[in-house]
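USER: Please consider what follows.
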Amino acid sequence: MGINICVKELYGLLGSMPSSQNVMLIGKHGIGKSQILTDYFSAKKMRVVTLFLGQMSDPGDIIGLPNKNLADGKTEFLPPYWFPVDGKPIVLFLDELNRARPEVLQTIMDLALNRKLAGKDLPAGSRLISAVNEGEEYQITDLDPALVSRFNIYNFQPTEEEWLLWAAKSKLDARVIDFISENGGWLDGNLNETVQMDMGLEKTPDRRAWEKVSSIIKGCDELTDLHKKVLAGVVGIKGATAFMIHVNNNNLIKGSDILNNFSKYESRLKKYKLHQISQVNESVYRTLEVSDKLNMEKVKKNLPLYVNFLAKSNKEAMAHFTSMVNKGLYPKALCIIVTEMPEIHSKMINFVNNL
């Protein structure tokens, strides 16, 4: 079973755990482990070195090449390209640990226990984080229990909501964000995709793939049949088909629509079911959190109207809107509400107190 953690919990874990303790993250490919860790530690001015162990064929790829010391005639190892010779601590991210060759894994033992590599110490404060894939679809190597015991192990499962917020901050194409917002099952699941399985070339969606989709369609106002074929090679035939159908039929109200002109969309909102309004709620929070072009005069006029609409017409939707502030994902949005529209914050507090 293991312990499941999301991105927010991973950050809290890394902030509270001593650097001397190693972390192992279990998760699917393409969920952004390397990027998430790089973003976190880069903000702390620490260099992240990612080693893809599954691609290494020889221990020398990690420990460096042997060299004869001319002074004493003994063999020593030249530091590998990534080794910190400036004395500054680093974060060593060992990706695909359980896809490494056994002889490569042996070089990790001393590194994981003593923070030493071929007799050289990692700088004090350095961290060791590994990632492994789990599932029958992977070709993996059984890990030595002695090696596993040197890591604190967690199942890493970034939430859909965390990915959507990241996607908005990273300015992924809005059509991709909207599609995943309404069809979260396509984010990193295969949804019974069986294309080319007999050849071992099954193509299924993952988070990295949807980022690729965004880069392909960005700037294209109209998506054609050729786009569908291109995208099928990225997220699979079924994923591409579902995405194209969504793009052609989608008319869900966006957070920016609400914040710019609530009255224009009120009649449509009245016909929405709870799950649709919940998606609008999340879009409103994402827009407040990431947009750098908010017209605050319009926001201060339209957001109170929207909240009043929720409070009067759909208590469950209002409860969802209120609960969003407790997720810790939208600090900027909450700050805008508290400082610019305190009446909304008071209404939310009163709503919770009256439940």
Q: What stands out?
A: Confidence is low (pLDDT under 50) at residues 192-200.
